[in-house]
Design brief:
This protein is an alpha/beta fold. The chain has 13 helices and 5 strands.
Amino acid sequence: MKDFLTAKEIEILQEAHHSSHFRKSADRIKTILLLNQGFSYQQIAKLLLLDETTIRRYEKQYKKSGIDGLLEDHYHGSMGNLTHDQEEKLRGYLKDHIYQTVKSIVVYVEATYGVVYSVEGMTHLVRRLGFVYKKTKVLPGKVNREKQEQFKKEYLELKQTKKAADRIYFLDASHPQHNNMPFYGWIYKGTSKTIKTNTGRKRVNLNGALNLEDMKITVLSEETINTHAMMRLILTLVEKQPQGAIFLIVDNASYNHSYELELFLRDYPRVHLRFLPPYSPNLNIIERLWRFFHEKHRDKYFEKFKEFETAALSFFQSIHQYDSELKTLLTDSFQTLPA
């Protein structure tokens, strides 16, 4: 039971505890924090002068509905303290400004509108206004949008001018871990779902190539992804495609720029490398295939690593069972990063 909270969940609970004006709310929060530290139900009941049944009830409420559910019975909210017009202005403001803590929103509302909320009350308000607490998405800070637009233009020209026997491949590697991780999903209210997991962190190193025109997918398992792994993948593609030019769209990993690979390609004049702009995973279509694979395999349990590796490769060998799903996913309609 120990260490089931994330660092951010601990921070939110501690913030709510410091701001709580109700002893029972504080006891509920302390219960969850103490459970996370490894205290038993009996120990916590003794420390907080409560009974074990109550401790278990608090735990169940938190697991079911988070901090809102934990504090719900003792919420003496401030619903309606802001006028409808003020709530709409707050909604618009919060859409444009990210606050990491509810307490910071409390401070903003008091300074802007002269209305005081408790942390519990503000939590209910922002949820009612349509906000949820979730991770931000990462956008590469060094992305060059002009170079991305130039790549799209050059790709379209290549696609339109290549000969009938020529093929374009998107290349990249993926490193699935032999260890299932918890994930979000729709689970019936009041119930919980569990998945088996391993303690190891060994990974399968998959090196892949995706040809959209024929929907051909080639995936090799490697000890490590390096220049020699790229050579093996290229040789496999050359063997599979005996005629026509082979255009490989690759990222800027050091092994793709190695002198050894350059020398190797001199013996294969049909093969041509086309480099993506730096920090542009959104332009590499095979990234979508890797995500699709992870979604299909994240709840599958394999006792032995070799079984996990075999299953990963088997997935791609029988990939056409998912053709109906992949038809709309694997297209060269490139994702555009926000400005």
